[in-house]
Each structure stands twice: as structure tokens, then as C-alpha cells.
Amino acid sequence: MEHILVDPALEAQPNFESAAYVGWLNALVAGGIAREDALEQMAEGWRLERQEHILLWQQQNEEDTCTLQEQLERERAEKEVEEQLERRKAEKKKPKINDFDDGAVVADVIIPRPSQYAIQKIKNMEYVELWYFSPDGCHEASTTSRSTSDSNDAFGFTKVDGIVALKMIVSFKASQKALQDHDLSWQQFNLAKTSFLVHIKKNNWPQKHQQALVLFFMLITNHEHRMRLRGEKALLHYVGFVCCEWHDRLVQDQGFNIGLFNNALYNSISGRPNEMRVSKWCVVHYPPTFDH
Prior knowledge:
292 residues; 6% strand
């Protein structure tokens, strides 16, 4: 059906005596119908046709209204879906904060925070020198953070929890002041390994790995050679070599139990005065003597 553009109810009855209808009128009169009757017949036919058009117009309006409502409902549903997607995207980008225990108080002791470089190494479960967890390393991280907070240092991209973010490049660089494990004092080592164990626990290292490291450091700190001349230095050399080797072997899927003390390796390390031992990670000069 052809779409009706104008409401038929608004149409005025035509003048059937005008020149436009003279042919129709003359045909009816020629057929034996009186002129007045012919005009009335023409008017009645127009009224009937007009009424049909009015009914079609009403039907058309109802159909158009339904179509419009369906379109509006479709658009509303599509808009709602888009808004939900936008809200989800916004929620993903929105910083999240976990709940807390109403009855819990802050710990009696707060472990100093190491540099972002060290934290990232821990998150990636990679080898990092214990110095970064020592008081000196944490103090250096704090000082560097304060000195660069208002500066115009370069920024770089990093991925944090699946989101690419801008971070100061300096915060992800190794410190030039970092010491290798064997160069730490015993006090530095003792404090650093405790902080290190706390941070690997915070970052959810596997329990098996945590327990092995706890045992490893316990055996080192309680080793009988600590009482000997340069015994602590020999033990620190052992720590440096074994930790490097452990991480390297884990990457190669050839991991060993670092919690099992290897006396043969320790004796080999502690019994080589005035020698230089080379590994793929570092070059270490032994002290002049290791007394047994």
C-alpha cells in the first residue's frame, strides 16, 4: 500500500460542478441520471473513498507508532549495552583497593620498602641482590624517590597488573650503589634476608620456594663457621653463588632445593684464598685467607 502523506480527514469535498469533473458528471447524466442525483452520487462516492482513506490513515499511524516504538526500544537497548560496556571499561581502569579487617591494627614493626627495581624483580621472581633489602638499600631508594619526585626525569612504559602505565625510568633502574651479596657486612646481610623473606611472602611466592629459602638462610646464619676467622665472609660468598645458581636453574627448569646445604661446594669456595672465581653473573675476588 502506498504511504499516505496527508490526513484524509483534513481534505475538503471537491466542487464536482467544476471543469475538473465535467466529464464524469456528463457521463452520469448521459446514462439517464438526473444532474442533482449525479452530483449527490459523486459526493457520496468521494465520502466513501475518503472514509476508507481515513481508516487506512489510522492503520498507517498505528503501524508507524509501533515501528517507532520498536526503533526507540532498540536504540535504548543498544545505548544501555554501550553504557554498560563503558562502565565496565571505566571500572577496569579505576584504581582498586581491597577491603580491610575492622579489628586489625598496624604491625608493631614496618619493614622498610626497597626500590621499585627490587620490587619488580621480586614480582617477576627474578634474582636480585640482597643489598636492595638492607637498611642502606631501602634508605637509598627513599632518598632517590624524594629527590626525583619534583624533577623532570624521563618516563617510560611499564606493565602493572595487565595495565600499561608511565613510570619514572630511574625507579626501575639498578642502583649504582648496590653491593653483591658477598660484599655485605654480616649485619647488612642478616637484616636484608629478613626483609627479603617478608617481601617474597607479600608477593605470594610459592610456599615450597619460601620454605626452602627460609631453611637456606637459617642454615647460613646458624652455621658453625661463623665463629671462625673470615667464616662469615666465606658464608656470604656461598650465599651469592648459590642464590644466582638457584634462580638460573629455575629459569632452565632444572631447579634444585636451595635449602639443602652443599658442604663440598662450600669447602671449595672457602678453601681458595687469593683466587678469583668467575660465574656468568658476576666476578668475585676472594679475601686473602679463609681460616678453617
